[in-house]
Design brief:
With about 280 residues, this protein is mainly α. It has one domain. Helix content is about 75%, strand content about 0%. The protein is built from 12 helices and no strands. Helix 2 (about 20-40) packs across helix 11 (about 240-250), helix 4 runs antiparallel to helix 9 and helix 4 crosses helix 10 (about 225-235). About 50% of the residues are buried.
């Protein structure tokens, strides 16, 4: 790690940010994401987003999302290969149609927030975005914890209109915070997909959704040459997380591991909000 932090060829961490802090959070986030994608279908990967956002100042939350998106796609590719042939297209098709709607709405909302204004206005927007990302993470964690404690989330029918609606909600949430894994996990769990089919469907679904988000993130200037250099560096840690995820998928009980990951996501998401408010 000392060599990593001192290497002159590495992208510089943001101003006023410790190299240890920046690289430590980023590497941890990427490994967690690889574990989530390959081992558990992506739901616990919600922890990765606030970890990355906490590696950067509050006014760079958009940059954090931009750095993360190409890494997500790399992790998705690994996971899709590992779970190839284990998808339910009957469930995926309406959800993908809805995701297009959600991504379009998210793009419009982000352009309205980010696309104009003076420096002070953009600082306020950055704070709003940081609080929004943290709040979405906390909400998704709260829903999952409620279910894990025996709470009943209303069961939705498995018809096409519902699939489109849930897919739209997932597309919008994914566009704003890369945090839609729990939405699709909960919905498809109710459709009685087996563990392997659920995991395979989730990873392919989010590969397609994340790829569709790329043009919007480039247009928002959240993905630039500099962020791509950082994404390429940290993507080197995706295989480590992916291999760990495959091992954990077969050897570690999902529930206790999920509890730990959601607790971490709640702390990291809450800290995103605290950094702005305090």
């Amino acid at each position: 790690m000392v060599l990593i932090c001192n290497a002159s060829w590495l992208p510089d961490p943001p101003a006023d940010t410790s190299a240890w802090w920046f690289y430590g959070f980023m590497i941890a986030a990427v490994i967690v994401m690889g574990i989530a994608k390959s081992g558990f279908g992506g739901g616990i990967g919600i922890l990765a987003v606030p970890l990355v956002a906490n590696a950067l100042p509050p006014d760079e939350t958009g940059r954090a999302l931009g750095i993360m998106l190409p890494i997500l796609i790399v992790a998705d590719l690994f996971a899709v290969y590992q779970h190839r042939g284990q998808q339910s297209w009957r469930h995926m098709r309406p959800a993908l149609g809805g995701a297009v709607i959600g991504i379009a709405l998210g793009t419009l909302l982000l352009f309205l927030l980010v696309g104009s204004g003076d420096a002070a206005s953009k600082d306020r927007v950055a704070s709003v975005l940081s609080v929004l990302v943290g709040s979405i993470c906390l909400l998704m964690v709260a829903v999952q914890v409620y279910r894990m404690c025996g709470g009943k989330v209303p069961t939705l029918p498995g018809n096409k209109p519902t699939g489109v609606s849930v897919g739209a909600a997932a597309g919008l949430t994914s566009m704003l915070a890369h945090a839609a894994g729990p939405i699709m996990s909960i919905y498809w769990l109710d459709q009685k997909l087996g563990k392997r089919l659920l995991t395979g469907s989730l990873v392919l679904y989010f590969l397609l959704v994340n790829s569709a988000k790329l043009p919007s993130y480039v247009a928002l200037n959240w993905i630039t040459f500099e962020t791509l250099k950082q994404s390429a560096l940290f993507a080197l840690f995706v295989p480590i997380g992916s291999l760990l995820g495959i091992v954990m998928h077969h050897r570690i009980p999902e529930k206790p591991f999920t509890v730990v990951m959601y607790a971490g996501a709640a702390v990291a998401g809450g800290w995103l909000i605290i950094k702005v408010v305090v």
